[in-house]
Automatic annotation (TrEMBL):
Enzymatic reactions: N(6)-carboxybiotinyl-L-lysyl-[protein] + acetyl-CoA = N(6)-biotinyl-L-lysyl-[protein] + malonyl-CoA
Note on how the cofactor is bound: Binds 1 zinc ion per subunit.
Protein name: Acetyl-coenzyme A carboxylase carboxyl transferase subunit beta
Subunit structure: Acetyl-CoA carboxylase is a heterohexamer composed of biotin carboxyl carrier protein (AccB), biotin carboxylase (AccC) and two subunits each of ACCase subunit alpha (AccA) and ACCase subunit beta (AccD).
Enzyme Commission number(s) from the entry: 2.1.3.15
Keywords in alphabetical order: ATP-binding, Cytoplasm, Fatty acid biosynthesis, Fatty acid metabolism, Ligase, Lipid biosynthesis, Lipid metabolism, Metal-binding, Nucleotide-binding, Transferase, Zinc, Zinc-finger
Underlying gene: accD
Localization of this protein: Cytoplasm
């Protein structure tokens, strides 16, 4: 009929076929692993990857973390050319490194550099759990130690975001040595009275939780982050005791004095700016 030509709405609704539904490009929608609600990825990204229903914090890549923390266009990367070796000739290690480099477009599991946050200069380190689970090998340890040294030399506060499965088993004892190396570099920073803020994100475990990430002058964590040294099962078997449900969460650690604050990602940048501001004005006062 003629009037149908002028109808704004289509006469027939199109129902996407099962095939078409499957063809929806991956990544447009995302499901929250905590509460199961489904939302647009773009909306989620606008909310800094925090679920609007339950406040679950999705993990962030290092570039994403830098983008939401550092002032726009104000990040200068350190040591981007450091590459891991395969000192123990561990089977398939080189291959896995190569795959992770392609997947993440990073060279290692931590990005370090300097920039400004709310106008305050700082040295910044961000671990990326997509790269070998954010494990700490020689290069990760070296980059963190060098960043701490830069902070000590320049007198800029050091802010380090952890996200790690712990030591990197493919580098054996060399990986464990990074715990001592990073801790020693932070001790130097401490002696120079330069502020170190550790931000623990989900997950921060093993050798990373047992070294630099617990050594902040201020230790902050994101809500519900898993933080601990050994896994629940290993501890339960060792101590032969049932552990509390919320054991190893940020909130549990806050309650027991291991953390100074649990801060939602939506307020984290402002909190850091406030800390940097207080620190700077406090220091000016003392000089
Ligand atoms: Zn949720």
């Amino acid at each position: 009929m003629l009037k149908d030509l002028f109808r704004k709405q289509k006469k027939y609704a199109t129902i996407p076929s099962e095939q078409a539904k499957r063809d929806i490009p991956e990544g447009i929608m995302q499901k929250c692993p905590s509460c199961g609600s489904i939302g647009f990825t773009k909306e989620l990204e606008k909310n800094l990857k925090v679920c609007k229903s339950c406040e679950y914090h999705f993990s962030l890549s290092a570039p994403e973390r830098i983008r939401i923390t550092v002032d726009e266009g104000c990040f200068f990367e350190y040591d981007s050319d450091l590459l891991s070796e395969d000192p123990l000739s561990f089977p398939n290690y080189r291959n896995k490194l190569k795959q992770d480099m392609e997947k993440t477009e990073l060279k290692e599991a931590v990005v370090t550099g300097e920039g400004t946050i709310g106008g305050f200069p700082a040295v910044i380190g961000v671990m990326d759990s997509r790269f070998r689970m954010g494990s700490m090998g020689s290069v990760v340890g070296e980059k963190i130690a060098r960043a701490a040294r830069q902070a000590a030399t320049k007198g800029y506060p050091f802010i380090l975001f952890s996200a790690s499965g712990g030591a990197r088993m493919q580098e054996g004892v060399l990986s464990l040595m990074q715990m001592a190396k990073t801790s020693a570099a932070l001790e130097q920073l401490h002696r120079k009275r330069v502020l170190f803020v550790s931000v623990l994100t989900n997950p921060t475990t093993g050798g990373v939780s047992a070294s630099f990430s617990s050594l902040g002058d201020i230790n902050i964590a994101e809500p519900q982050a898993l933080i601990g040294f050994a896994g629940r099962r290993v501890i339960e078997q060792t101590v032969r005791e049932k552990l509390p449900e919320d054991f190893q969460t940020a909130e549990f650690l806050l309650k027991h004095g291991q953390l100074d604050q649990v801060v939602s990602r939506l307020e984290l940048r402002d909190t850091l700016i406030q800390i940097l501001d207080l620190h700077l004005s406090g220091r000016d006062h003392n000089e």
